[in-house]
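Protocol step 6 of 9: fold each sequence in the batch and record its structure tokens directly after the sequence line. For illustration, a two-sequence batch is reproduced in full.

Sequence one:
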Amino acid sequence: MQTEVIVITGPESSGKTTLATQLSAHWKSPCVAEVARSYLKDKIFYQKSDLLEIAKQQYVKESTILSKQPNRMVCDTDLLVVMIWSEVKYGDCDPWIYDAFEKCLAEERARRSYYLCDSNIPWQADPLRENPTNRDELFKLYLHKLKEYELSYTIVKGSPEERFNLALNASES
């Protein structure tokens, strides 16, 4: 049995966690939480090596849930987020992250779908967020990466309810 993997992605403060939580509850499916939130909550500063550790932990969390073979799994971000974050903040990305991301895609391409959250909602300040002024630019980077990797994606925008309905409709088609 193949697990349908739904990945919620996009810039900071674009409603990813809200949508992931809604979809997970609606489908009664496991949700892979964003590792970066728990990893960075007590850090004042972080460095590039922290992003590699975040990526490794995110990969393990996904793999652990996948090993239980649920029908569907919702991911509140994945390695694509860490990849883009590293490229934007540091100008490059650890090769392990690229390799692990490509491994996920090679193993799951037919069953992994992305929901790209548009940044057209108000910014919500948070100590872990860094990019309040360039969310549109980041959205374009996500869109570029999804196209570059030829991934199945749907852009979700509007209110939380509209985003939820767009995601549900896309998953049924």
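Sequence two, same batch, same settings:
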Amino acid sequence: MPGDACFRLLQTIVDQRGVTIAVGVPTPGHRLPRISTLILRPASEIQVYSKQFLHADEEPFFERGPASDAVIQPHPCVALAICYELSVPLHAQRAMEAGASIYIASVAKTDQGVEIAGKRLSDIARKHSAVTMMANCLGLLDGVRCAGGSSVWDRKGRLLTQLDEEQEGIIVLDLVTEEVVTSTLNANPH
């Protein structure tokens, strides 16, 4: 999977621009697929993080990834969480013990789920003095409307910015100044 042509193209962009890109994909497991994130960094091999804590409704269809602290090195040290994992305190604890100062959760949440995840990420930020981020999708997923609301919290758990529930967008955070820049797309996904 990491050797696919589309990922080689993304790796070229990463190398040219000096950025890191994380892409959610299914990856092969031993008997079932895994829910994974591929991390592409400049001049580096693609790193794979596979979800370790599965929600009960995922267990019949996916297998857990290998033990990992979910941390991307080097500085700043970033930890990844995939959806349900952000609600598992042990997940964030392991990441912070491994040196993470940023905790990013990719999710598929409804309005209520965004509210719950926001409280949890604010708590993680405050408890561990870490920047936390949530990337949520928009539109229908398995017949349920995902509510957007991608967000960033500072190290004290204060919400710095949140996208709305109507437009796709990008959030850029300067980790030194905590200045936030957002950009939205004009297309409505509904």
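Proceed to step 7 once all outputs are recorded. Observation for sequence two: The CA atoms of residues 84 and 173 lie 24 Å apart.
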